[in-house]
Amino acid sequence: MNISIIIINYKTYQLTCNCIDSIIKNVTGVSYEIILVENGTDEFRLEKVAHWGDKIKLILSEENLGFAGGNNLGIQYAQGKYILLLNSDVYLTDDAITKTYAYLEQRPQVGVVSAKLVYPDGRIQSVAQRFPSVKYQLIELLRLQKLMNKRVAGKLLLGSFFDHNENVKSDWVWGAYFMFPRNILSKLPQNKLDDSYFMYYEDMQWCMDIKKLGYEVHFCAEATVVHLLGGSSAAKKELMEKNGALFLSKNYTEAEAKWIKKLNKWLLQSTKSQI
């Protein structure tokens, strides 16, 4: 088995169906299984996945384990050489999965790869990112990127500064499309992805942990998938602030975390003043 594709369903029945249908329609270059985790809802049962045949393993969880916990549950049943964590609001238009599989096969130093994620209208999402950093925040705050060549600045800062039209080594990538070798799990704490984040910032932590093992995190521009990307909410904002603080406390000194928070606040104020 080349790839185990983990999809979490939580009140996204039709999106999940569309995602699975797009995989079955487009993926032809690799052997794969789809592990569908019903994460505390009652939308999928065995009779509802039967038409997809033996490609689907349905895992039922009585409680909502969150994105990280749900993926760790699904991973327990994975048999593939590589694991792809795929959001239910993603759908394929071509065989992007085989492209990222080949990318990893050719680069044993890479521990995580993500694809180019776009909105349905083709606009690019900022998948390749830098970790929070005093260095990069100062560059942005002082507008030093305006003194640089645009391409150089883009590859230095990544995020919205990067056009996402070429492959690049990054600090972290979004968990919406997150492919990695399954054998990495045996080297991680507790032999699993960090699930202390219920949702948000878990992908940043996973990349941090995998980079600490000596692997690289890459963005692959050659593979493109459509990501619907839900809108923001007050609850999301509160959870992101909480998990952002958790990420800083787990990975930075107290002084570093303090300055990163200050600089981030100044950046937000600076951005608002320019609007």
Q: If helices are DSSP runs of H or I spanning 4 or more residues, what is the number of helices? A: 9
Helix content: 25-40%
SS strand fraction:
15-25%
The end-to-end distance, rounded to whole angstroms, is 51 Å
List the helices and strands and how they pair.
Layout lengths: L2 E7 L3 H14 L5 E8 L6 H4 L6 E6 L4 H10 L6 E5 L3 E2 L4 H10 L4 E9 L9 E2 L4 H8 L8 H8 L10 E3 L1 E2 L3 E5 L20 H11 L3 E12 L6 H18 L2 H21 L1
Parallel strand pairs: 1-2, 1-4, 2-3, 6-11
Antiparallel strand pairs: 4-10, 5-11, 7-9, 8-11
Helix pairs in contact: 5-9
Q: Keywords, please?
A:
about 280 residues; alpha/beta; Spore Coat Polysaccharide Biosynthesis Protein SpsA, Chain A; five-stranded mixed β-sheet; 9 helices
Task: Give an overview of the whole structure.
- There is one protein chain.
- This protein has 275 residues and is of the alpha/beta class.
- It has a domain at 3-127 and 164-230: Spore Coat Polysaccharide Biosynthesis Protein SpsA, Chain A (Alpha-Beta Complex), CATH 3.90.550.10.
- The chain has helices at 13-26, 46-49, 66-75, 96-105, 134-141, 150-157, 202-212, 234-251, 254-274; strands at 3-9, 32-39, 56-61, 82-86, 90-91, 110-118, 128-129, 168-170, 172-173, 177-181, 216-227.
- The strands form 3 sheets. Strands 3-2-1-4-10 form a 5-stranded mixed beta sheet, sandwiched between helices. Strands 5, 6, 8 and 11 form a 4-stranded mixed beta sheet that branches.
- Helix 5 (134-141) packs parallel to helix 9 (254-274).
- The longest helix has 21 residues, at 254-274.
- The chain starts with a strand and ends with a helix.
